[in-house]
Description:
Elements: E1 2-10, H1 16-33, E2 38-43, E3 56-62, H2 65-76, H3 80-90, E4 93-102
Antiparallel strand pairs: 1-3, 1-4, 2-3
Helix pairs in contact: 1-3
Amino acid sequence: MNTYAIWVDLAPGAHDLEFAEAVKGYLGVFLREGWAEGYRLKRRKFGFGPTGMGEWSIEIDFVDLAQMDRAFEQAARRTGDLENLHHEVYSRVVNFRSGLYRDFPDPVRGLE
């Protein structure tokens, strides 16, 4: 499994539950269309966490990089309903950071 990890903070004036609903709406399309396998939205608890990593974490799971590429291709079109849903998410955040992780060990390293 490949996981696209995102860390953000809420933008000034953004509300936490509205942000959570926006993420659910946007990434729900990814799940319904088969562009992703799952996602998790997490919020830092009690302020614990490294400085600069953001209060919020979104992890999006993909079977392989081909599936991730298809998802990014859809998002990159920046049109229609999907773009409106994307706007509902990114307009509520600041300090975006991201990374790409994989389960380990995995089939590439011999684990079946």
